[in-house]
Structures are given as C-alpha cells and as structure tokens.
Amino acid sequence: MATSEADEVREYRMAELAEKAGITVRTLRFYRERKLLPPPRREGRIAWYNDHHLARLRTIAALLERGHTLGGIAELLAAFESGRRDVGELLGLPGAAASWPAETPVRLRPEALADYFQGEVTPENLSTSLDLGYLAVDGDEIVHLSRRLLDVSHTLVEQGVPLAAVLGAAREVREHVEAIAETFVTLLRTHVLADAVARGEDVGETVERLRPLATSVVDAELTMAMNRRMRAELGEAPPRGHSGDQ
Fold it and tell me: 9 or 116: whose pLDDT is higher?
C-alpha cells in the first residue's frame, strides 16, 4: 500500500482493493473492463487504486443487491458523473440522500461466526457465502451484509436446516428476486420516473414514496403462494368462502 502525499488518499494494489471490497481479483478486472471503475494511477507497471475506487465498488455491490444489472449500473453511474444529481440520490451515492434503505451489516470474528452456526461454517459454505456476496473479509473480521439475513439463516439452522441447504435456497431466491426487482424497476422507469423528471419532481422522493408498494405486493404474493403450497403439501382444501389464493 502507498499513500499519495498530494491528497492523502489511501492507495491499494489490485489484490488489496479486491480484498477490501470483498470481491475477487477476477471480478475487479471484469468491472474495470466494463468501465465501471475509473482508471487507476499508474506507477511504472504497477496500478494503484484508492478509496474512491473502493467507494465505487461498494456502490456497485449495493446496486447489485437492489436488483440492478451491470449494464444498468454503468448507465446510472455515467448519468451521475455527467451531473444528474437526481440519479445520484436514487442510487444513494456519497453526498446524496439515499432513497432505498440499506441492510445493516454485522461484523463478526471468525470464531464467533463458527459458534453462531453450530460448527456448520465449512470451507464449502464459506465459499458459497462469499460467492453470494453475503460475507466479506475486513482485516481480522468477517462482515455479513445483512443483519436480517444473518438472523434468518441462524434460525433456520437452529430448526434443523443444514447451512448448505439454506445457502442453496438463498441462491434460488436471489434469482427470483432479481427478476422481481427488474419488473418493478422497469415499471417505474417506463411509467413514472421519466414523467417525474419532466415535471421537475425529486426522483428520490418519488421512488421512496412508491417503494413500499413493491414491498407490499411481494409480501402479499409470497403469503398467498406459501398458503397454496402448504395446503397442497398437507392435502387441505382452501377455506370455505375463499377462492384460490385466499
């Protein structure tokens, strides 16, 4: 690691930056090839990245968690850099008000994580968690991206579900949720956000106002789907006076 005396911004080599951001060097190279990161400072054959690159990587991670595609992220970042501050607010970038709530990360010592999951923190499960983006390494600590997901996983393991099965289900859920998020983002972009910008409205406030609607739809649909599945599993008929999903 080196320190730039001009602006006192901390600098990292590629491997150090990847570790700090909780991603692989291969992923970092891929982001750079997709021009999601500004060019590093060159010193001979050595590329130096700084805290601004780290902040960008964390922004990308947050957007991926919210269901954005890499292509969409590139467009949004380009719009922000060109001066579209309303887009910055929508993304929750530094210096702008975040519209979408972030998950609360949890810091754990490796031994505490092992105790939390009753000895099921195997190399295979750790690798899967890192691949899903649930875990990142920060110095001597492990950071889980979401207190809620950590607690749910812990409860499922306590109920007898193997951690490997929990992570397998999480991967499936991620795929479905990505599709759901894309549906709602497309809906807003197509029918709401463009008109809001044209009227001079604050895009961040518009998104914040509509976000609970998406959450309510998903919660209601999941509840009805779980009811249908459980009735089918138990061989029960729908309650009298109710049809189908209710």
Answer: 116
